[in-house]
Amino acid sequence: MERACDDARHSGVVIVSSLASDAHTWNLVYLQLLLEEHGFQVVNLGACVPDELLVAECLDRAPAMVVISSVNGHGYQDGLRVVGQLRRRPALARTRMVIGGKLGISGARDGLRADQLLDAGFDAVFPDGPDAVPEFERYLSHVFERVAS
Ligand code: B12
């Protein structure tokens, strides 16, 4: 699920991060490797990232994209809260931000809540499922020029 936004023809740094409540790490390692395969330079902030740290790192690094992953079931609440904090900063108002993973605890029905995350400021939402990663890869090739040969 994707919100319309301007084309971003640059690569640069991508921040991969979990959210404050989430201790899972292999999802982040997976995303880091996937993004590196696509030619991005990744800064992986790891698990249980406090909102303030995520905001500070984004302001400091001015990433081309922020990729948030959560699988513990609190992703909708945590994501809604944190994207508001990120978008409130003028420097991050137009930064590309996506979120994905096991965002809730209701399985397929959680997909219905993706609209709330888009309304709150994410550019795209990738709820868990067999299509999530292929859709994310299509999204990457759609909005960024491939930087790896
Ligand atoms: C290992 C594990 C743990 C370990 C984590 C250790 C570590 N260092 O990571 C420990 C024991 C700490 C743990 C704790 C908990 N866990 Co746990 N855990 C797992 C487990 C078994 C495997 C997760 C894993 O590593 N997968 C491998 C990675 C590579 O895959 P992934 O996480 O699924 O990510 C994939 C997709 O989700 C997707 N994806 C993820 N993010 C993004 C982002 C984008 C943008 C895109 C495109 C795709 C994407 O791509 C990834 C690759 O396919 C899963 C069950 C399972 N089999 O998945 C439960 C699971 C994630 N845990 C769960 C739960 C509930 C918990 C606890 C709350 C349990 C408890 N009561 O304490 C705590 C939460 C702790 C916390 N504060 O977060 C639930 C979440 C339920 C939900 N969301 O519906 C699961 C699904 C188990 C279950 N079936 O109930 N857990």
Care to describe what's here?
There is one protein chain. This protein has five helices and five strands, in the order βαβαβαβαβα. It starts with 12 loop residues before the first strand and ends in a 6-residue tail after the last helix. Helix 3 packs parallel to helix 4. It has a five-stranded parallel sheet, with helices on both faces. The chain is 37% helix and 16% strand. The protein is α/β, with parallel strands linked by helices and 149 residues long. About 5% of the residues have low confidence. The protein binds cobalamin. Cobalamin (B12) binds next to helix 1, strand 3, strand 4 and helix 5.
Explain the layout of strands and helices.
Blueprint (H helix, E strand, L loop, with lengths): L12 E5 L8 H12 L3 E4 L6 H11 L3 E5 L5 H13 L8 E6 L12 H7 L3 E4 L4 H12 L6
Parallel strand pairs: 1-2, 1-3, 3-4, 4-5
Bound molecules: cobalamin.
Cobalamin (B12) binds next to helix 1, strand 3, strand 4 and helix 5.
Bound molecules: cobalamin
Count of domain modules: 1
Order of helices and strands: EHEHEHEHEH
| CA-based shape | globular
Number of helices: 5
Cα separation of the termini: 28 Å
Q: Extract low-pLDDT stretches.
A: 4-10
According to CATH, the homologous superfamily is Cobalamin-binding domain
Major beta sheet, strand line-up: 2-1-3-4-5
InterPro entries: Cobalamin-bd, Cobalamin-bd_sf
Pfam family, one: B12-binding
Protein name: Methylaspartate mutase
Organism: Streptomyces lydicus
